[in-house]
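Here is the promised in-class demo. Please do not try to memorize the tokens; focus on the logic of going from shape to residues.
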């Protein structure tokens, strides 16, 4: 019996999505609850499973199409069994008759055929959107790691490899790009996630009275603490001790003294919070996402590090849930992992504050009248001046500086 696969509810206020990649092709056998298609929403990629075991009989939308919540996206025949392919050693009857009736001439280049057919088979196993990018850029699929079902390449995998420079081109493209007179342009449709990022960032600029204040912080104490305890910490807790847990706990401390930085405007009211739900900006194949570290004020260093590591891993695999990306009253963004020296981070509405971390580098500073070399980091706090006064913003950043330069403050709540 044929059964429609219905697009489930995808989260509050989300009514449509974009078909990202078909994980199962027409004629494939599927198990109950096995993902058959990946959808791109405003926030994350969501896999839609088959409601029954059987055979996928039809795709009702193509990759790149917009689809509505509650609509049918595929048809599965329940209880059916996929046709098994003929064994490689069993010749087709018509072909064997033809060969017996008329001897075939010896091919001039018999080795070329298997190579071409292998390449074609690899491309055929990809979704149309992935195959188009591979063909347009003439990339070698074997040079790209797949994170999809059964190791299949996703569009995000290919775009991330191109951006990172790890995707290798075939010899044909390399020769073509060597021509000095060639000028190329490539138009790639923005993903739904990228469109949402663009809209929200522009919304922040248009609605908030955004201002940024800066300070620098001496990382010597944190680096010494981390160096002394990182092996014991990892052995006991099974996770590495990084810098993010120090900054997360410093933000918790600073929010207690300056709650306005964690507040937000709702209508004609300012909402203040006595908890710390911290947004931790992490990279995903589709762009930057901000999962929420909820109740960070109640988490230990180990719990903080485990949660952040889990966010990063699941963001790369496209497995973050929608409710993990909603809410939050302060965001931390670490551009230093990419080498950024200084930046003015943009607010994540409706939040009123975002802390920007940057790379650590040795710089000359004055200590006790002497010029010394210290590992320094610039910090930037962008804030909504409608909610946060300049004095509060500077005080907030100073509290973080004090906690990082003297980590014992984090233990005694100073």
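The designed amino acids, position by position:
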């Amino acid at each position: 019996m044929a059964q429609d696969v219905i697009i489930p509810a995808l989260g509050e206020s989300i009514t449509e999505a974009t078909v990202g990649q078909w994980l199962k092709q027409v004629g494939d056998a599927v198990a109950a609850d096995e993902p058959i298609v990946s959808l791109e929403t405003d926030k994350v990629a969501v896999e839609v499973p088959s409601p029954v075991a059987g055979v996928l009989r039809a795709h009702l939308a193509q990759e790149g199409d917009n689809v509505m919540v509650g609509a049918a996206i595929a048809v599965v025949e329940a209880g059916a069994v996929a046709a098994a392919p003929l064994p490689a050693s069993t010749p087709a009857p018509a072909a064997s008759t033809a060969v017996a009736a008329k001897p075939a001439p010896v091919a001039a280049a018999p080795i070329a055929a298997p190579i071409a057919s292998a390449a074609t088979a690899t491309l055929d196993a990809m979704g149309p959107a992935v195959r188009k990018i591979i063909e347009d850029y003439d990339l070698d699929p074997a040079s790209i790691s797949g994170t999809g079902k059964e190791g299949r390449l996703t569009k995000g995998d290919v775009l991330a490899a191109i951006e990172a420079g790890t995707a290798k081109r075939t010899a044909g493209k390399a020769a073509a790009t060597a021509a000095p007179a060639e000028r190329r342009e490539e138009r790639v449709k923005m993903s739904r996630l990228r469109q949402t990022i663009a809209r929200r960032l522009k919304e922040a600029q248009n609605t908030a009275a955004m201002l940024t204040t800066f300070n620098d912080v001496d990382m010597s104490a944190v680096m010494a603490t981390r160096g002394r305890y990182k092996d014991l910490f990892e052995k006991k807790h099974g996770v590495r001790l990084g810098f993010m847990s120090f900054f997360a706990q410093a933000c918790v401390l600073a929010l207690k003294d300056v709650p306005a930085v964690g507040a937000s405007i709702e209508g004609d009211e300012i909402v203040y919070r006595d908890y710390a739900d911290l947004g931790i900006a992490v990279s995903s194949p589709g762009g930057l996402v901000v999962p929420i570290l909820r109740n960070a004020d109640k988490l230990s260093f180990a719990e903080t590090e485990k949660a952040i590591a889990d966010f990063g891993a699941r963001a790369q695999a496209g497995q973050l849930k929608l409710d993990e990306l909603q809410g939050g009253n302060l965001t931390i963004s670490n551009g230093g992992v990419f080498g950024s020296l200084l930046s003015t981070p943009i607010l994540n509405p409706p939040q009123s504050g975002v802390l920007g971390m940057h790379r650590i580098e040795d710089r000359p500073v004055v200590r006790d009248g002497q010029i010394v070399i210290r590992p320094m980091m610039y910090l930037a706090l962008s804030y909504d001046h409608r909610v946060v006064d300049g004095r509060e913003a500077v005080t907030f950043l100073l509290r973080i500086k004090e906690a990082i330069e003297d980590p014992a403050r984090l233990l005694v709540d100073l």
